[in-house]
Amino acid sequence: MRFIIWVFFLCFLASCSSGQKSKPADLSANLYQAFDNVPCPSASDFRGIGIGNNENEALAQARSNIALEHFSQNLKSNVQISGQNIDHVASTSTKMNIAQEAAIANAQDAKLHFSTRKGDKTGVIACMSRSDAAKDFAERLRPVSDSLKFAASSVIDAKHPKLKSEAWQKAKPLWNKFMGLYPIIQSLDREKSAAFEPVSTLYEKAETYYLDFCQTAKLYWNPEQDDVYSEIAFSKLSKNLKLEKTACKGHGISLVYKNTGHKCEYAGMFECIHKPTLLIASCYGEEYRLLENGNVETYQKVEAVALEKLQEKLRYEAFWNEWEQEIKQWRPICD
Predict the structure, then answer these.
(1) SS in 3 state form for the chain?
(2) Cα atoms in the Cβ-side hemisphere of radius 13 Å centred on 11
(3) Which CATH number goes with the domain that contains 324?
(4) Would residue 200 count as lying in a domain?
(5) End of a domain among 128, 151, 180?
(6) What is the pLDDT of residues 164-211, one digit of tens each?
(7) Is residue 139 scored above 80 in pLDDT?
C-alpha cells in the first residue's frame, strides 16, 4: 500500500511539473517578426514601425520612426542632385544647409498600413509616399523661392552698380536657403521640384550676369585735369583702393577729380584755397555721387610758400578716409 501511495505521489509531482507554463515570449520580437512580410504599397514609400499599448500610441511611434530614421539620419546624407550623390557634387555649405533642413514636419501624413495585436501590445506599420514627404519641403521652399526670384531678377535688371551689388548680396544667402531644400525635393518628387527649376535657372543667369559685371566693374581714375591736386588725390585714395589709370570701360566706376585748381588772394597775407571735389559716375557719364569737402586754406606772406603749404596740408586732411569708405561702397563685392 505504501508503495502504491508513493507511486501516486511521484506521478502527482510529475504531473504538476509538466503542467507549468513556460516564460512568455518577447511580444515585441513576435510583433517585429509579423512585420517582415508586410511591405508598403510602393517600394519607394517610407516605412515606419511602431509598438505601443494601443494603435494610436503605436502609430505615433511609427511616424516618429519615419521622421527620425529616414530624414534626420538618412535623407540628409543621401540626397541626389541630378542623379548624383550630394557628397560628390555639393559644397560644404550646401551639405550643411541640407542637414539643417532635412527634418520633416509632416510625418503625421504617414498613413496606417498594417496593424496587429499580440498580448497587451499593438504593432503597426505606417507608410508615407515620397510625394507626401515632399509636400512639407515644398511649402517651406515656396517663400524662399519667391524672394530669390525677386533678388535674382534685380541682379539682372539693375543698372545702378550699388543696387546691383546690394541685390547680389541679398540673393546669395537666399540661394543657400534654397539649396537647403531644393535637392531634398528633387530627391523625393521630381514633379514637385520641377516647379522650382525656373528659379534655379534664373539664379544661375543672375550669377553669370554678376560675374560679368565684376570683371569690368573696376574703379577708373579719370581726373578732369592732371595736376598736382589730382595727383595728391590719387596718391591718397590708391593706398587702399585699386584704381585703374585708363579710360573707363564696361560696368566700371569713373572717379573724376574736378579741376577746381586753387585761388590765392592778398590781404596783408596771401590766402590760398583749394576745394577738393570728386565725382563718382558710370563709364557712360551717368552721375552717381558728388563728394565735396570744405576749402583747404593756408595763409603766408609769400604766395609760393602759401601754395606749397596748401598742397602739403591737402595730403593730411581727414576727409580722405571718408571718401575712401564712400568709394568702397561703389565697388562690387565679387567673392
Answers:
(1) CHHHHHHHHHHHHHHHHHCCCCCCCCHHHHHHHHHCCCCCCCCCCEEEEEEECCHHHHHHHHHHHHHHHHHHHHHHHCCEECCEEHHHHCCHHHHHHHHHHCCCCCHHHCEEEEEEEECCEEEEEEEECHHHHHHHHHHHHHHHHHHHHHHHHHHHHCCCHHHHHHHHHHHHHHHHHHHHHHHHHHHHCHHHHHHHHHHHHHHHHHHHHHHHHHHHCCEEECCCCCCHHHHHHHHHHCCCCCEECCCCCCCCEEEEECCCCCEEEECCCEEEEECCEEEEEECCCCEEEEEECCCEEEEECCHHHHHHHHHHHHHCCCHHHHHHHHHHCCCCCCC
(2) 6
(3) 3.30.160.150
(4) yes
(5) 128
(6) 999 999 999 999 999 988 988 998 899 999 999 999 999 999 999 999
(7) yes
Whether residue 180 is found in the same domain as residue 239: no
Q: Residue 300 and residue 279: Cα distance in Å, rounded?
A: 31
Domain boundary residue, one of 161, 190, 214: 214
Question: Does one domain contain both 165 and 238?
Answer: no
- Indicate if 94 and 144 belong to the same structural domain: no
326: pLDDT strictly greater than 90:
yes
